Amino acid sequence: MGNKKPAVFCPQAHGSSVVTVLLLIGLLTAMISGCSSAGVKGQQALLPPELKEDQPIINYKAPEDLPANYRSYDFKVIAGEQEIDLYNAGLNSWNEPISYGYFDMPGRSKMAITPDFPFESFEIIPRSLGIEGEREGNTIRFELNRQVPVTLVLNGDYQGKVLHLFAQKPEEDIPDKNDPNVIFFEPGFYDLGDYGEPPLMLQSGQTLYISGGAVVRGRVRADQASNITIRGRGILLNDYHSNDEYDDIALTLGFVTDSVVRDIIVNRDASSWTAAMHGSSNIEVTNYKAVSPRFASSDGFNINSSHDIVFDGSFVHSADDAVAIKGLSHEEPKDALPVYNITYKNAQLWADANNAIGIGAETVAPYFRTITFSNIDILHNYDDRDHPDVLPDRSAINIFALHGTEISEITFENIRVEKAKRLINIQMRDTFYFGALQGNWAWPGQISGITYRNIESYSDGSNEIKLEGWSKDRLISNVRFENIRVNGEKLKKDDPLFTVNDYAKNIEVK
């Protein structure tokens, strides 16, 4: 990671055969290349292994009976020799349609993308992949040799028509559709709900499987459950508001333990959260994709009052926090559930409003502790469509404490920011979004032991770094900035990018 290179032990022959030495060196080289990294000078990305051989993709066709408004015709995508069906995720904050598609990729593949409209320039992001591409007429061609999401941005317009493609590992261990504990959706379109319809409820020990080529329109929920699995290559689609006693979220885990969410795509085309967990523990979320560009409040997957959570390999395009870790409770912080042991890694995040990475704003918990965000590409972060540059509490990487609590042992490392208004924010305040949320700093609290390591911003935004404590006994302290680079320049202690008030102490820059 960073600029460090793996240490290599080179054995001396001392009479051994040259062949043996060469074999050992070859083995060491293979071991090192197994953890591949790529990127520009400064911060490197840990990437999946590079695929060396061409192989046909595994394609999942859209359901024949899928309503036309859920399809996208803004782009034509060919992977190898197969056309990828594309979906319309809905309009973004600036009323432009967002498109996405998916396929499994056992080997490298030649890609051809043809927008159905004229354009001047293109970018394939994240830049950590090192994909440049070539243009032939209106077609963009490139080779994809890793199982990763890629995004096409045209004319440098991150607020315009954008295409997301999800190239994935081939699926393994598909559950038995005849198992009584498996809810199995085969390829096709399933309309499970509308205004007033309850969610699909999962019980302990059950598996929900959405096949590639399936689109399930509805909501999914588990309450007081354990050992559940939600998985599959298909799409959970929700584009309506509910009218029942349950929350208005596409995927909800309430007080769930020892469970797994993996591989699915959730497309929430309405102004409310895409997915959330509350009071949950021992949850693994792997290769999760959320494409929810509708303004606003379409948070990607929020982690509320939970502990021992691992997210690995997420992609989120939202119009609010891509990920937010919150303390939500009607109790006082000392009596509420704590938030701890959370790892969020190997992700690509795009947030058209609020923050890409957020802790808060609601912080009703006795403490937030041992939380790590690592190896993340922040593709885009904008503060607010309706109030640009008015809300100073928003940033690409954010801690915003609305209620008195202890926030400590938080690490942000190996993060690359493509485009954002502000870079980093740590704040204590008692009001949020023009008073829409009210806080309470009469309760005791502090923010300390925060580390930012190997952060690289290429953004043309302000790149402001703000630290704003509350009072002399409710401080921000012991914040460490290590190897932070903004457009190639290393951050300095007296850098003009800093905005720091009197209640932020012991700030270290290395």
Automatic annotation (TrEMBL):
Iron is among the record's keywords: no
Keywords: Carbohydrate metabolism, Polysaccharide degradation, Repeat
UniProt record, GO biological process: polysaccharide catabolic process
Protein name: Glycoside hydrolase
Lineage of origin: Bacteria, Bacillati, Bacillota, Bacilli, Bacillales
